[in-house]
């Protein structure tokens, strides 16, 4: 699995919004890439809705959000539509992206892992938890927490 300091592997894949996404096209802005096991399940819905809730605060800071699972494009499109997600979900039915990121788990599903990438697409933080809450919380703390004021 990728670790802080690693360069995120580039990928190009179809997304829920009907476009192709090439990760390298997002260079220049921080990116949250979250892998989730299965579109439409309770935990994945909770996690995706959590990121959607943060999105209006992340977008003005230039932060991009991309969800990835091994579901096919039809499942990703329905899931994104049902949740009204304001960011793309990547379909990885061949499991190549999940393998390259080291998150392919049991039963051929992606493990729930979130990678925070800097503007150069280098990993700055990794969240791995079966529960969806820690992923959303870490993104909130790392990307939305205002820095402490300078000492006087």
Features:
five-stranded mixed beta sheet, 4 helices, alpha/beta, 152 residues, two-stranded antiparallel ribbon, Glutaredoxin, 30% helix
Report on this model:
- With 152 residues, this protein is of the alpha/beta class.
- It has a single domain, classed as 3-Layer(aba) Sandwich (Glutaredoxin).
- It is built from four helices and seven strands, in the order E-E-E-H-E-H-E-H-E-E-H.
- The chain has helices at residues 42-58, 73-83, 96-101, 133-144, and strands at 12-14, 20-22, 31-35, 64-69, 89-91, 113-117, 123-128.
- The strands form two sheets. A five-stranded mixed beta sheet has the order 5-4-3-6-7. Strands 1-2 form a two-stranded antiparallel sheet.
- Helix 1 runs parallel beside helix 4.
CATH A-level architecture: 3-Layer(aba) Sandwich
The count of β-strands is: 7
Overall geometric form:
globular
Strand content: 15-25%
Total domain modules:
1
Global Rg = 15 Å
Structural category is alpha/beta
**First and last CA, distance:** 42 Å
At the fourth level of CATH, the homologous superfamily is: Glutaredoxin
Task: Summarize the helices and strands and which ones pair or pack.
Blueprint lengths: L11 E3 L5 E3 L8 E5 L6 H17 L5 E6 L3 H11 L5 E3 L4 H6 L11 E5 L5 E6 L4 H12 L8
């Amino acid at each position: 699995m990728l670790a802080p300091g690693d360069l995120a592997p580039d990928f190009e894949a179809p997304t829920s919004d009907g476009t192709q996404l090439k990760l390298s096209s997002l260079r220049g802005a921080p990116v949250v890439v979250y892998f989730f096991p299965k579109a439409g399940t309770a935990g994945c819905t909770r996690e995706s809705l959590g990121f959607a809730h943060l999105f209006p605060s992340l977008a003005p800071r230039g932060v991009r959000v991309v969800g990835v699972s091994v579901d096919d494009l039809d499942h990703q499109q329905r899931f994104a539509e049902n949740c009204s997600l304001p960011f793309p979900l990547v379909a990885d039915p061949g499991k190549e992206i999940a393998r390259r990121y080291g998150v392919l788990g049991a039963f051929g599903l992606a493990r729930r892992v979130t990678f925070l990438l800097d503007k150069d697409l280098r990993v700055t933080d990794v969240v791995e938890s079966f529960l969806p809450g820690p992923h959303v919380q870490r993104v909130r703390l790392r990307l939305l927490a205002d820095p402490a004021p300078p000492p006087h």
